[in-house]
Every structure is written in C-alpha cells, then in structure tokens.
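Predict structure. Chain length: 137.
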Amino acid sequence: MNYLRLEIICWSCLLIAMAVSTEAASVWKLPTAQMVYEDLEKCRQESLEEDAATLRCLVKKLGLWTDESGYNARRIAKIFAGHNQMEELMLVVEHCNRMEQDTSHLDDWAFLAYRCATSGQFGHWVKDFMSQKEVER
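Prediction complete.
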C-alpha cells in the first residue's frame, strides 16, 4: 500500500514538473504592428466582420486575452512600456476588465473592456502603435 502511495506521489511530481516546463517553454513575445494587422485580417474572416468577435479573436491570437480572466494587463503594459506608465495602464486595464466582466458573453466582455480602457490616453497609444505599420511601408 505504501509503495502505491509513493508511486502516485512520484507520478504527480513528474506531471507537475512537465506542466511547469511546458508553460515556461511557451514564451510570449511582444507583438509588432505587422503581426497585429496579419492576425486582424484572419480574425475578420473568421468572425464574418463582427466587431466584438473580431476583437476577441485578435487579442486571443496575440496572447493578450483568455476567456477565463479576460485581458492580461501585464502583457498589455509591456507593449506600451515606452510610455513609462505601466502601473497606471495595468490599473486601467484591470479596472475595465473587472467592470465589464461577463463570462456568458465573452465577445461583448472583450469589446466593452477594450472600449473602456481605450477611452483615455491609452486609446491614443493604441492608434500610434497601429500607425507604425503604415510608416514601415
């Protein structure tokens, strides 16, 4: 009986170690404006041009959204770190995420939280980020 417990504990430790190494291996990278435009086009086609569904598809592809917790404020703040207001931006994103949270209507949650967060200075930063691609042409 003790041997079985030891074997279960060993397998559990192995599974935990595998899960941790798998998560560490999938490292998130900062998206470029080019990546955003490419993913946006794919999402528009997948969602049949519906705005809320397109937005949620896009932010999922970019690694900025999960259906369980909404927007990842830390990752979003890293994209705009050059503005030296990461903590403030994270607070805004987290506030809007909580305020609009609706797990039964995920597309609406993503859209309304985005609209909330981008209603101020952050909205100008997003426009500036997206205009980078046009400058690259």
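Summary: The chain has one domain: 33-131.
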